[in-house]
Design a protein that fits this description.
heterodimer, A: about 300 residues, mainly alpha, two-stranded antiparallel ribbon, flat, B: about 375 residues, alpha+beta, 6-stranded mixed sheet, about 25% helix, about 35% strand, binds adenosine-5'-triphosphate, binds magnesium ion
């Protein structure tokens, strides 16, 4: 038994070494940075130790804006994308002809570069003094007035951002869900059919519980992914996200390190730790509910 | 409720598009299952047993032919309107529901006036659970139960709606030998108590023979013989049926009929009046051999095996299909056997002749 354990640890050693160097050590470093007040990266010196960095970040309006943006993004895109993916997967699962074609079509965005998709979104939604994007042409066609989705009001930008995020994360979720739907044993459905179970009840009482582990997986990874959103915002609104008012928490961290206002690793570390604690808490809550609901 | 199949055929298109022929899973099935009987549907793997069951349950529509329950034509009725209970080969219990919830599930589907109150549902579920003796385990999930217990939950779920027809698809195939014996008796008891017309699918001939009122022997989608188990065993219509039924299996030799006398090799072993002259396959049941010093049939003696109350003689013969044959005899007669030769006389009612096409050739006993 002891020997077995030793062997197991030996097998895990390379992974542990890598994790130690690239995860645990930087994590400690981040904690240390976040506690060093007035750190100067040029002279590598600092005044003192304390929680001032956290206090600064938490009072920084840019950070608060980033938190607000990120939260809106999480709260809207995770349920919407998961629900939409479920609907599409159910549809895909029930059609017979051209199923593979549709599956490929739905998966294409996943293999397309985020920035390229961002460009397409910009073209679709943009409005300049001279020309309107496709969406605005549609709005005009139905009698509405053009909106500048990329450089206009906050709600418009947020909407584009949400649609874009949903679009980006959808293919992977569809892939996973069609897979898990197809793997549900057909006998359950036959049994339900013999017993005269309605379609609706079959879905709620059989399909949903049977794919719930995958659904939970998608929700948890969805939360984590949405909290870490950054490149999506850049793809749509460019690098100066603070000016656009569309910054995310990760974007804020990046800006603090390298952006115009860069050179503040301590603030960046503090913000990163705040993000970490939010994601960590939510994941724990998720895992808990999952355990409670699991069969 | 009586079940009637009339010229029922099921064809599947071939998956491989290059092959134009279709898969015939059931071809021209014609039989009637009398009300309240337990029928064993028997045949080797892939012979169309599950297909037949699916046709009766309505999960698959027949390509041709009609199916009647009692006097009603149910061919075009969807499964839920036919009032059947089906126990799947792998039970298909909902893994996230407890035994009680599984059993109640069909009742919760009922609508309108038929729908019992919550309390009635629970009462009926518990009542059915008592019938299959799992009322102690109602709070367990399927994975917390043994194979036999799961199987009984599956039966209870099929029975709770009080169906007119109960269909069981190889329900015992996942169980160990002892549990299998026990559970098949259980199924027999439940069937007797409820009086539900039951179709029981299996590829195990012993299982089918032991509990069925009648057996239907199938091969390659076609029915070969129908009848009481003992009758089918004693009087098989062809070589396939003869070989398929019986443990130890029937011993098959090549022989020849000439002037009403059957010879295997040089020896004339049996009078077979009425049989036409020609080459035949001779099937002799293990209990058809009687050791006899002056017997007509000589074989090589390999060994004598005593297993429990059975004594079997393992013998060899150059014209036998298999390398070794088996004769089951009484212990007293076995005592006299020694050396490497043994002579038998044959029981005419345990000896069957089959033509080159496998069809039975009858002779006067
Ligand atoms: N959906 C299908 N499409 C094509 N062929 C099928 C289909 N279902 C069954 N078959 C074929 O029909 C034949 C009968 O199948 P069936 O499942 O009824 O066999 P079975 O007697 O139940 O065998 P087992 O004892 O292995 O369960 C097989 O040759 C099978 O390959
Ligand atoms: Mg089968």
């Amino acid at each position: 038994m002891k020997k077995q354990n030793l062997k197991a640890w030996l097998y895990l050693l390379p992974a542990i070494a890598f994790l130690g160097v690239f995860m645990v050590y930087p994590l400690f470093d981040v904690v240390i940075y976040s506690l060093e007040e007035g750190y100067n990266s040029a002279s590598q010196s600092f005044f003192g130790v304390g929680l001032y960095n956290f206090s600064y970040v938490l009072h920084d309006p840019y950070f608060l804006q980033a938190v607000k943006n990120t939260l809106i993004l999480v709260v809207i895109t995770v349920p919407v994308s998961t629900g939409l993916a479920l609907l599409i997967s159910l549809g895909l699962n029930s059609i017979k002809t051209l199923k593979n074609l549709y599956q490929t079509v739905y998966f294409l965005p996943y293999v397309t570069n985020t920035l390229a998709v961002g460009l397409v979104f910009m073209i679709l939604f943009k409005k300049t003094a001279y020309s309107d994007g496709l969406i605005n042409l549609l709005i005009n066609f139905f009698g509405g007035r053009s909106v500048d989705f990329i450089g206009g009001p906050y709600w418009a930008k947020m909407m584009v951002m949400c649609i874009y995020t949903v679009w980006i994360v959808l293919p992977f979720k569809i892939l996973i869900l069609t897979g898990s739907l197809a793997s549900v044993n057909q006998d359950y459905y036959n049994a339900a059919k013999i017993d005269g179970t309605s379609k609706w009840r079959t879905f709620w009482r059989i399909t949903l519980p049977l794919i719930s582990p995958m659904l939970f997986y998608l929700i948890i990874t969805g939360f984590i992914g949405a909290f870490k959103a950054y490149s999506d915002a850049v793809a749509l609104f460019g690098v100066d996200l603070n000016a656009a008012g569309m910054n995310t928490i990760v974007g804020y961290v990046y800006d603090m390190l390298y952006g115009n206002s860069g050179g503040y690793p301590s603030y960046a570390s503090a913000a990163a730790l705040i993000l970490f604690s939010i994601v960590f808490t939510i994941t724990c809550v998720n895992l808990r509910t999952r355990k409670r609901l699991q069969f | 409720m009586k079940i009637v199949l009339e010229h029922v055929t099921k064809r599947y298109p071939n998956r491989n598009r290059k092959i134009k022929t279709e898969v015939i899973a059931a071809s021209d099935l014609n039989f009637e299952i009398p009300d309240g009987q337990l029928i064993g549907l028997l045949g080797p793997s892939g012979c169309g047993k599950s297909t037949t069951l699916n046709l009766i349950s309505g999960l698959e529509p027949p390509t041709e032919g009609r199916i009647y329950f009692g006097e009603t034509d149910v061919t075009d009725l969807p499964p839920e309107k036919r009032g059947v209970g089906l126990v799947f080969q792998n039970y298909a219990l909902y893994p996230h529901l407890t035994a009680l919830q599984n059993i109640m599930f069909p009742l919760q589907n009922l609508k309108g006036e038929n729908r019992p109150s919550k309390q009635q549902m629970e009462e009926r579920a518990v009542e059915t659970a008592k019938l299959v003796q799992i009322d102690q385990l109602l709070e367990r999930r399927p994975k917390e139960m043994s194979g036999g217990q799961q199987q009984r939950v599956a039966i209870a779920r099929a029975l709770v709606k009080r169906p007119g027809v109960l269909l069981l698809d190889e329900p015992l195939s996942n169980l160990d030998a002892r549990l299998r014996l026990q559970t098949r008796e259980e199924i027999r008891r439940i069937q007797r108590e409820t009086g539900i017309t039951t179709v029981f699918v299996t590829h195990d001939q012993e299982e089918a023979m032991s509990i069925s009122d009648s057996i239907v022997v199938m091969k390659d989608g076609a029915v070969h013989q129908i009848g009481k188990p003992q009758n089918v065993y004693d009087d098989p219509v062809n070589l396939f049926v003869a070989k398929f039924l019986g443990t130890p299996p029937i011993n098959v030799f090549t022989g020849e009929v000439k002037n009403g006398s059957l010879s295997i090799g040089e020896e004339a072993v049996l009078r077979v009046p009425g049989a036409p002259d020609g080459e035949v396959s001779v099937g002799i049941r293990p209990e058809g051999f009687v050791p006899d010093e002056n017997g007509a049939f000589g074989c090589g003696l390999d060994r004598v095996e005593i297993m429990g109350r059975d004594t079997s003689v393992v013998f060899t013969h150059p014209l036998m299909e298999n390398e070794q044959g088996r004769a089951v005899i009484s212990a007293e007669l076995a005592a006299g056997l020694s050396g490497d030769k043994v002579r038998f006389s044959l029981k005419p009612n345990k000896t069957h002749l089959f033509g080159p096409d496998g069809e039975r050739i009858r002779f006067d006993i």
